Amino acid sequence: MIEQMTPSEFVRRRAAGDDLVLLDVREPHELVQSSVKGALHIPMAQIPDRLAELDRDRPLVILCRSGGRSQAVASFLMQRGFTQVANLSGGIIRWNQEVDPSVVL
Questions:
Q1: 82 catalytic, yes or no?
Q2: How far apart, in whole angstroms, are the C-alpha atoms of residue 75 and residue 92?
Q3: pLDDT 10s digits, 30-54
Q4: Which of 3, 31, 38, 94 has a CA-to-CA distance to 12 between 20 and 30 Å?
């Protein structure tokens, strides 16, 4: 079972000192429209070829537009031995609603 984390919980945990990596798996054209400062950007289709860029020792929280692609990437990563993986439920849409309305959709 993949952990689900809300944007509010992500912000709270990071502020409390948790060393969370926010991995944004959206496409480059989506990032032009909106992005979260400090996120690592690797488009979903590039994840298999770029696994070496991900730190297995740090918790990964995967972000997409609404939570579907990030859920699939989280599952893929867990199947490849990543143990600290969570899906950011609701994606950038929920981030806009809960954390930062200036992140446009």
A1: no
A2: 19
A3: 998 888 999 999 999 999 999 999 9
A4: 31
DSSP state of 67: S
Percentage of the chain beyond pLDDT 70 is 100
Specify the CATH number for 3-98; select among 3.40.1190.20, 3.40.50.1110, 1.10.3720.10, 3.40.250.10: 3.40.250.10
Helix, strand, or coil here: 51? helix
The number of C-alpha atoms within 13 Å of 67 and in the hemisphere containing its C-beta is: 15
The total number of residues written for the chain in this structure? 105
In 18-75, at which residue ranges do the beta strands (DSSP E only) sit?
Answer: 21-24, 40-41, 60-63
The one catalytic residue among 39, 64, 86, 92: 64
Helix (H, G, I), strand (E, B) or coil at 86: strand
